[in-house]
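Usage example:
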Amino acid sequence: MHAELVSLAWLAATLGGYYALKPLYRRLPRWWTSPLLTVPVLLAVLAFAFGMNYANYMRDTHWLLVMLGPATVAFALPIWRYRGLIRRHWPALLAGILGGSVIAMGSAWLLATWFGLGGEVRLSLVPRSITTPLAMLVSADIGGVPELTALFVVITGVAGVALGEVLMRFLPLRSRLARGALFGMGAHGAGTAKAYDLGSEEGTVASLAMVLGGLFNVLAAPGVAWLVR
Amino acid sequence: MNSLHARIRLFSMRQPRLALVAQVLALTAFCLGCDRFARAVHLPLPGSVLALGVLLLLLATRVVPLADLRRGADWLLAEMLLFFIPAVMAVSQHTALLRSDGVRIVGVILLSTVLVMTVTAFLVDAVWRWRRHAR
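Running the assembly step on the lines above writes:
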């Protein structure tokens, strides 16, 4: 078969798998039903059955990755929509975003060093707490491998939702603001969806923390690159 | 200008699907344009982030009303999972690394996430309480 046809078939399988498996997550929202897990598993099964050449897989599906750019631009809308909340609570949001970002990048770097991880893996772990499109930008900027970072971000999201639920039970938090920021900073998109389950204010704060925290990381990336090199 | 936006709004009410496609295309073209510009003048900023900033400015100055882009932007944000499935498939290129370092990597991610969540939540709660008492 022609290579062009094969990579078109992979694009079709990715799209088809996504739209076929998305309703499952909507009906049964668990970490193991997320399309981010089920679609790659489906594709892995297909790859096992028919064989896959990664370069060939990426040839047409890389257009999906290109769409992460406009998705990043779309973050302007939640920021604008929730400007009232930003104006009301900017000191608390700012504290959470600055503190959370420093802890996220610093702890990933230090823990990786203590665990004996170095090189590209350690660099790819640094931006893992923020939303995927921005994390991949930061990773490329500081010398990591964007694809590895994307994988680490996904693991963070899946694990973060479960960890956040446990932490919420033990931490003596008074405000909805803190619960939302916990999920938005700690588990980006997956956490934001979870925060919306708690309430609309928690969800809004989580999405703001995710977007603004991610943007802060992107703007700080040149400085971080200087520090870690 | 106003009649143009009124017409756009009417169009997006009558043809929600077409409007969605048009808005996604507009955002994509805008992002690519900003990307070109950022590369051309060697901005230390990714094009998509520049585009986000400019769009925020356009929204704030009411040059572009929210309603003109709502459908497209919400769709892009809702389908973001689809866009990074190819990135997850890159795992196949790193199986040896993940087999040797996977456990340690997951360990770093879990511990770091607990730290981020705890510190963020405490900071936000502390500032929130302090501001409430200050008033």
